[in-house]
Amino acid sequence: MLRRRSQLLAWGGCLGLLVLAWILPASGLLNPYVQQVLMYVGINIILTLSLNLVNGYMGEFSVGHAGFMAIGAYIASILTVAVCPRFWGPWLFPFVLIGGGLGAALAGLVVAFPSFRTRGDYLAIVTLAFNMIVKSLLENIELIGGPRGYLGMARLTNVPWVVFWVLITLIALRNFVYSNAGRGVLAIREDELAANLIGVNTRRLKIYAFLISAFFAGIAGGLYAHLLQFINPRSFSILKSTDMLVMVYLGGIGSLAGSILGATIFTVLLELLRPLGVWRWVVGPLMLVLLMIFQPTGIMGLREAKILQPREEFGGVTRNPGTMP
Amino acid sequence: MALLEIQELCHNFGGLKAISDFSLTVTAGELVGLIGPNGAGKTTVFNLITGVYHPDGGHLYFAGQDITTWPSYRIMARGMGRTFQNIRLFKDLSALDNVRVGAFAQCSYSLRQTLFRTPGFKRQEAQMTDRAHQLLARFKLSRYALTPARHLPYGEQRRLEIARALISNPKLLLLDEPAAGMNQAEIGVLITLLRELRQEFDLTILLIEHHMGVVMDLCQRVQVLDFGETIFTGSPLEAQHHPAVLEAYLGKDGEPDEI
Amino acid sequence: MLALSIQYLLNALQLGSVYALIALGYTMVYGILTLINFAHGDIFMVGSYLALWGALFLLGSQVKLPLALVFIGALLFSMTLTALLGVLIERLAYRPLRQAPRVSAVITALGVGLFLENFTLATIGPQPQHVPPLTPGYSFTFLGVTCSDVQLLIIVLSLMLMVLLDWLVGYTMTGMALRAISYNRTIVPLMGVPVNRMISLTFAIGSAIAGAGGLLYGLAYPVLDPYMGVRIGWWAFIAAVVGGIGNIRGAMLGGYILGAVEIFTPVFLPASTYRDFVAFSLLLILLIFRPTGLLGRPTFERV
Q1: Which of A46, A111, A150, C164 is the most exposed place for a label (fewest CB within 10 A)?
Q2: Mapping DSSP to helix (H, G, I), strand (E, B) and coil, where does residue B65 land?
Q3: Are residues B189 and B62 in the same domain?
Q4: Which of B125, B154, B169 marks a domain boundary?
Q5: C298 touches chain B (CB under 8 A)
Q6: How many independent structural domains does chain B possess?
């Protein structure tokens, strides 16, 4: 009985949020600028959740997630501009995004395979190389604009869609993290060899983690492309990847709530600092360095908000399993 | 019936012979000790059995199958459990999660079922969680269920490692120096625990141990290694008086090396 | 045809020398701290600006100084200040993190790099700055191959610095201490090696060499902008990894290889824009098949 009620509550909450996301902008209560910032926050939440799966939960170190984002953005854009009839655009938008996500997931495999053999610094370099290769390839394909970029997408991204995808990402990642596979992924972070030696198929898990992570980064890319209506290879450079790192480590590794916090704080802060002009870009890196020195686990490091944990997770034991005693 | 059969295993590290012609047959239900001085290659044998290294020569059969070239996770999922010389728990994970990771291979739900949290998924998860709680209770660790492993006292960490290895109901348990760092009283408790576990879980145990008392008390049979070569097989009592064993442990003529 | 090949080779050698000089900094820091110092490329960038200012200051002085003196002055100025900058970065940003998880330090390095870059951008601005020539501008032509004095200067001076460093690390007490620390950082302090001072020294040397590279690069390609550190730095970084990060001779080898990649890619592929693609693909393939680089030694994990 209690269980049914809490489930209803959760679904009701999600639905309520979606309705709110639909009504508020339509009612004119939110001015376009606030809407825009809200959408950036949402896209960044998806990106941060996606990167946190690999860097926070699995303990690998990806510095190339902008590469996945780029692939998602370009595939989705090409699909809306060159493939789908313009009239159907709004209806096909979710499928276009999924197309981009799947393309990115495929690229995720490219990084997952090297991760069988290498770890730590070397895997970081692999992901970095991946990011650079994607960017360089995009710059060299004239068909999609080369270094000038690609445009012509309708502005299909709006607040309800962003909220919808944030919820999907959050639910999918929560379900993954609190499962057999999710525990296996955590075990890889803690001690990969020991995980193997108690029967965890670490290779399969790495493929899963990279697939899921890349998929959602691709979705975020698609949303981003249809918000800006213009993308170019330079938007997906290593700088973008670094932004994602800042959000993950600001919010806290291995935490869904932390990812939401980190993405929100970072995005809003950068908006607030807009009057500073170029100096704004000095603040981000400085924040990152100070964060690493004084609060290396971020705001929520390895802890989770209770509302995001499945009720049945601990089989009757109900205390929050925070790391901090 | 032979549960584990090792035939003439050889392994080199960069040209250095670590293990040569190691053969051992363990029958279901047995409790066998693997002993020898430091650096004799005991842990290397464990690593070869569990697929951390693949042997340069020889064959490994486990539960009727040739596992010589299998990857670790597959060997372990086939019914082996292992603990480590220097405890290797997942330090930031709770005791409960540590044990549940041990059941990884038992879980049969798919990625799709995971992402959609289907009823089948929930049923299996609940079963596994119950089983993990049972095991924690069996090892008197219930009150640490949600405590990160790194905060557990040393003895409890050792027990948790065994619990983690046992949740998958292994046929064969490999224990690498379970008594390391324990005092006499704790060792007594450990010996009793291992005896009970053998009964309860219907285990076959292969044990590396430095502490002769443990070996004497528990093992029906020992195999003594020195510089990667088997120098003795037989009962623990005989091993204690065998000249080659004494020489390996104490130096030539059975006298301690001069200081 | 042959003359053209030799000409390309010469250009590759010139560019490769600069890459090698910067790669040395990456590799030295990695060797001693197992930290990828992502800020190193930007230290190089700062170094080239410093060299520019040093040269401009000396050229603008009342007394007409000979060019050689201006060059040496700018070189020393740049090397000293970049060395200081490297030591400062280590002290402020990396030392507090020495006991922290490795990832924290790597992220900090990324942050420091971005900070240097954006700080330069904010203070100096994005417009490119021009480096005045500091050599008489002679060039020698032999059998159709042209070699400018700048080219010769870069190749010879780089080689001298590298030989000096190789000797320092391989054949002196200081070098022995450095190698000992990279081998085992917990035991070595017990032997009386001042670890902190040695680490500072590593940063000083690595950064000073990058400073020298900054001047030499400015002579050959006399346009500086705040992003050059990223552009050149990444390439030098690949060079260090290709050679086997942590290995000094590997970094030199990698530098020359990357120089060749950059010069020869447009010869074989339609556009020079494929350079990044080729370089990073090379890196990726190498990492998959030989993760520790050409001259690096493999590592094992203990169970």
Answers
A1: C164
A2: strand
A3: yes
A4: B169
A5: no
A6: 2
- Contact (CB, 8 A) for B197 and B162: yes
Yes or no, beta carbons of A197 and B76 under 8 Å apart:
yes
Helix axis angle, A120-140 to A89-112, nearest 10°: 130
Interface subset of B 42-61, CB within 8 angstroms of C: 43, 47, 52
Q: Which pLDDT value is given to residue A1?
A: 47
Residue that terminates a domain, selected from B141, B169, B197: B169
Amino acid at position A84, single letter? C
Taken as a whole, chain B contains a residue count of 259
Residue B10 lies in a domain: yes
Place of tokens 């045809």: C1
pLDDT beyond 60 at A237: yes
Helical pair A280-294 and A238-251, crossing angle rounded to 10 deg: 40
| pLDDT tens digits, C159-194 | 999 999 999 988 998 888 888 888 877 788 888 888
Rounded distance, CA A43 to CA A73, Å? 12
Strands A230-231 and A150-151: antiparallel
Contact A231, A225 (CB under 8 A): yes
**Does residue B259 carry a pLDDT above 50?**
no
A:122-181 residues touching chain B, CB 8 A cutoff:
172, 175-176, 179-181
Cβ(A41)–Cβ(A30) under 8 Å?
Answer: no
From the list A63, C39, A206, A190, the residue with the least C-alpha distance to B97 is: A190
Residue C109 pLDDT greater than 50, yes or no: yes
**Total residues belonging to chain A:** 325
Does residue B84 lie in a domain region? no
- Count of Cβ atoms closer than 10 Å to residue C282 Cβ: 16
Cβ atoms B49, B60 nearer than 8 A: yes
Regarding whether B135 and B194 lie in a shared domain, the answer is no
Q: Which of C73, C55, C21, C70 is nearest to C205 (CA)?
A: C21
The string of pLDDT tens digits covering residues C43-66 is: 999 999 999 999 999 888 877 888
Q: At what angle do helices A238-251 and C102-124 cross, to 10 degrees?
A: 120
A121 interfaces chain C, CB cutoff of 8 Å: yes
Residue ranges of domains in chain C: 27-229
Residue C141, CA distances (Å) to C5, C132, C149, C153, C216 in order: 15, 23, 11, 16, 22
Mean pLDDT calculated for residue range C66-81: 92
What is the token pair recorded at A267? 């995005």
Task: State the ipTM, two decimals.
Answer: 0.91
Interface test with A, best of B82, B89, B114, B143 (most A CBs within 10 A): B114
And the tokens for C59?
């050229």
- Residue with the two structure tokens 């046992």: B166
Q: Where are the domains of chain A?
A: 32-237
Q: Which subunits count as partners of chain B given 3+ CB pairs below 8 Å?
A: A, C
Contact B82 A187 (CB under 8 A): no
Token pair for C284 = 């990726």
Indicate the helix (H) or strand (E) that contains A78. helix A65-78
Would you call B92 helix, strand, or coil by DSSP? coil
Nearest CA in chain B to C301: B52
> Which residue reads 């391989």 in tokens?
C170
Q: Within a 10 A sphere around the Cβ of A134, how many other Cβ atoms?
A: 26
Task: List pLDDT tens digits, range C226-269.
Answer: 888 888 988 999 999 999 888 888 999 999 999 999 888 888 87
Q: Which domain holds residue B141?
A: 89-169
Q: Give the C-alpha separation, B164 to B96, whole Å.
A: 9
Give one DSSP letter per residue of C139-156, joined into a string. EEEETTEEEEHHHHHHHH
**B195: domain CATH number?**
3.40.50.300
Are residues B132 and B176 located together in one domain of the fold?
A: no
Identify whether residues B140 and B224 lie together within a single domain.
Answer: no
Task: Give the number of residues written for chain C.
Answer: 303
Q: What does residue B169 show for φ and ψ, rounded to 5 degrees?
A: 50, 60
Q: Report yes or no: C96 at the A interface, CB cutoff 8 Å.
A: yes
